[in-house]
Amino acid sequence: MLRWIEQERFNTGMDTEAIATPQATGPRAADPLLPLSNPLAPPPESVTVFRAGSAGSAAEGHAWRSEVSERSSDSLWRPLVEHRLDVRLTGEEPEAALSEILIRWDEHLTGVASAGDWDTAAVVARPSREPAGSAELLRHGFAPVRVLAVRPADRLAAAGPPAEPGVRLRAAEPADLDTAVELYTELQRYDAQFGLVTLRENAGELLRADLAAQLDRTEPTVWLAELYGRPLGFLRLQYPPETDWVAPFVAAERVGYLSSLQVSEAARSSGVGTALAAHAHQLYDEAGIDAVLLHHTLASPRSTPFWYGHGYRPLWTYWYRRPAVYSRNAARS
Fold first, then answer.
1. Which superkingdom does the taxonomy of this entry point to (predicted)?
2. What's the predicted TM-score (pTM) here?
């Protein structure tokens, strides 16, 4: 039985020092690649804090809202509004405390989110190697949808990727914009099947503007794979300092982010994906990158086995409930 429950609300200007405290020793001990400081600390704006506990176990959650514009390229890969909860669990049996926090958060969400709005989601990110609380999240309608995976640098790997018959890799140029947009669009349409990526009417416009800026760079960040002369594969990379937004999620000094890798249906099982992944890892090793991060959809029958077969493993798991507040009427419509 729970012995205590608390709920507090802080506004802009609050002291976020307490929220940005280091991760508990449990998750850090279970995964040495987790950062010492908390990368999920909310911004210094309106935050609601929930606390519950009993018998030496406790849970604490910090809830806040994240929103992007429809005109932002970020809107293509997430709901416009995400209600996020950063959860800390302590003790041997924190499940009951977490369940109470999720109940309180649900009550809070009914007052700030429209029921049945597909462009909202409730999101809880958890260290992948900390399973405590998973059953409670499932009971409250959440599903593990997205993973932030990590691949530590492989300094002992052979120089250069192995050659794949008929596959040629080259840096994309401005003249390749149409091809890059087509491959990127294929990736978005495929990932949309799993419920997180959102197909928007302005997707083509946003993708084109985003890729055009990348192709104008002096140092290439977009690569194409040609299979017997046909461009059928696409790779996009980020290097420091562009990766500052994701670097806090891993205990590494120099972090690379593999933004996307797409292989056209016509080139599946041809070695194009393997060649692109090996090329990315070679480039990152040459740049002195200590760890490479990427996001992938956990339910994808392509992404999950592919990336874990190339040295990646889960670091953070993102549990989603979309819409944030369920509506039976909306589900029937």
1. Bacteria
2. 0.89
